[in-house]
Predict the structure.
Amino acid sequence: MKLLVQGDDFGFTRGVTLGIVDSIDRGILRNTGLFANMPAAEFAVNFMKDRPHVCFGIDFNFVAGKPVSKAEDVPHLVDENGYFIKSGARIRDDLWNSEEGRRQLFPKDEVVREIRAQYERFIALTGQKPGYLHAHSIMPETYLEAIHELSEETGILFSMEAWKKQEMFSPKMYSPVSKTKVFEPHAQLEKDTTQQIVDGFDDMLKHEKCAICCHPGYLDADLLDMTSLSIERVRDAQAYMSDVISQWVKDNNVELITYRDLKEE
């Protein structure tokens, strides 16, 4: 069985970055996407050159920090201070409840401009193209369309489309904030990502290709200020570095793959 293990939000904060690096060096993580718009992105890029076995992609971020574009060029995407409007505020907006409304909230021209800006920022920081393209958090139609169009233009795999095309099985993973976008510290503390993955062992072994996607990271104050998906990242990192899961990979001859492997097929 081939297993693609992905960890999102590389470069979100220094704490998240270090948790992802440990999940690579001490665990099973082999794919991670950079938040090219964040101040910690440059810090994160420093870890890339010494880890050629890892596929470094890009996570297009429209809900945290500031855009790469000038705020006046993407006025519908930012608040009065020039920061991206958070996902929790977006889904509470009445316009979010219809496709027409979502297209108003995220105008296609502004979305395309920022997608391209983050993509170019990735190249400027790393000197290379991303290994894959990935969507983050809420996904209005214009956002998915823009990523798909960039994928078609560049030939770089769009993660969601690659999973579907490859018929990759993914075990069900529970996140207490994935739909509510409400900060629930006790629920996040109690999340047992390791057990969730263990519970999926039997089902994964029935498939040729599988994928696991989590948000590993260490907690820092910057993360608490910017997102409700915070505490549970420590549990995700714990799972990726779990001896139980690493041993299962070895015992069952599971091949850890990257998006580069999917591209070659």
Summary: The radius of gyration is 18 Å. The first strand starts at residue 2 and ends at 10. The mean pLDDT is 94. Residues 57 and 130 are 4 Å apart (CA to CA).
